[in-house]
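Session log. Operator J.P. requested a structure for one protein chain; no other inputs attached. Running the standard single-chain path with token output.
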Amino acid sequence: MVKKTQQQDGLPAVAPVAGGTFKGWLWHHAKPFTPPWIVTGLTGVAGAGANFVWEGSPWAGVGLTLGSVALTAATWTAGARTGRQRRLHSAITVAAASAWTTAAALSGPLSGPLPDLYLMGGAVLALSWNIRRVMVANGMVETSGSDADKGLLEKVGLARTLLKGVKVEPNKVVASYELPAGELTNDDLGKARDRLASALDVPTTAIRIQHDPDSARRGQIVIVPEDMLKTPTIWPGPYAPGQSVAEPLRIGVYDDGADLLLPLLAAIHILVMGMTGSGKTEGALDLLLELFTRCDVVVWLADAAKSGQDFQPLLPAVDWAALDTPSAAAMVAAVQAVIPARTAWLRDHGYRAWEPAAAQRQTNPTHSCRQDGRACGCDGIAYLLAWFEEAAKLLRELGDDVFTGIAQEARSAGVSLVVSMQRASGYQLSTDTRASLPAAMCFGVKGDDAAFALPEEVLDAGADPAAWGNKRKGYVYLASAGVDEDLHATPARTFWTGPSGQYERMAEYVVKQFANIRAKLDDVTAGAAERVAGDLFTGRHTRALGRPAAPAPELTDAQESAQAVAALVDEEDTNLDATAELDPAAEDVALPPAGDGLSPEEARELLEELIGMVGGIGPGTVAVKDLGPYLEQIGRDRSWVSKNMKRLAEEGRLIAPTGTQGVYRLLPVLVGA
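Structure written below.
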């Protein structure tokens, strides 16, 4: 038994194992070079045997001569699809061997110059094949790929291109290329990729071009002739259960069987794109299943378009599931608010950016907020991932730059943003936001949509998600920092969560098995979110799942009395001093009775018109107090206006709540609505 190693000359060296001998080692080195010498010896035996049978026979001479010509022609024809040098070398060898055998058969192998020709010619031909083997092993033999049809590369417009160092692996061929200097560039090879795929009769996605960053005419061509991703791979379970989110997330496999790993802390923010039926949801489930098995990450999920339809079994593991437009809008505002709070905490504890140690109790004096240099013992802050599913709806209603600030400011705060949508374009996502989403997962798309998700160099290297559309569910390209650039254009496929019922069992396993491992939302993040989102945050569990909210603290008698009085006070008057004297001028102002002159439906329609008018001429927000001058026109009091504005915000119509009570943000009106 031997162990293969690699030596300097490029040939596979063989090192003897314990107990081996020098003789065995030498034989294993010489064995690859013996076939030409064996053939030379067999040629001599064949000549002597033929002489014994046909010596002096003129008819045998004719037959052997014709046979030699036919054998040489057959060799030349059989080598049509090989390199020109190898074809010529093979034909010369066969012609020389058959000519000597014919002469030896007729006159004897020891007559005239035949012995010398055999010894010298046979040795030269055998050595030439040995030399060729050494050169091929070192990548020194180059071929232009010419064949009987003027060469494959010549066909596709790449004449005079040199291929060398061809490596053949199971279902994979890698060849280094060198384009003719001054004639072609790497871009020309990229443009010829489709023609090359046609000539080889493989899909365009089977050919990838890896440019040499130090050369404009060198690189590698990778050909994967058989699609190994056709059969989906069932989710195999968590990749790093109970470990930090700093460990990569395993979400699928590449076409060579390697794991598809997403390093979240390197990717930071991710754009996920894919048309309906492309498997984008499967990829989301794979990511969430991995996240929910980690010990220091909290997930916020917004899905106002489908109300979390695809994620129901996983919602118990989500800290905040925003399943309607008001909640999703509040989540956007909350993420914006938690960034400075988390950054301040990290700064005070000596962290330049979030790291796994920041999620633990701070027992290291190096990361202490105390001035005396002692450990502070503060609770840590978990990593936060905010996932916005089907974000196109949210972008239409809140504006295409709603995520820009988050993406630009969250990098060092331990916050990742995932924006998932079917079709990303400049009309939906601002260029500033797109530039702030450095990582992309692109599933099957239509036409040129991939140009907005994948970098130009990845598309030039052969990435073509439009070739999949929705016919290759789960096929994806991952372009992210922390992932080898050569893999950015390599097709992969996310895991399959199985048929109906199996996904639910997987989700139940992850939700229950890792319930005590998952991190809880820290007070720093929770406090900042509550200040902005209010009840939409504090009541998030009940709102999303009907889960009971945390029990309210017991109140003293004085607190209960104050609460009862507050319930009778209009929310807009909570900050007024009840003991202050009224303005004399206001005593003469009397509100018309409720419902005076307008039906309830007419009053609501008028309120909506006034909200649009007031919000449209202001900073995009409208408060209950802004409608004070129009109360008489509406025929209702301020309490009625406050309640109906709150109802409109809860329904996601016209307005959405802000962090200030009684102040609402005007939602854009959809075209055609």
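Operator note: The first helix runs from residue 22 to 30.
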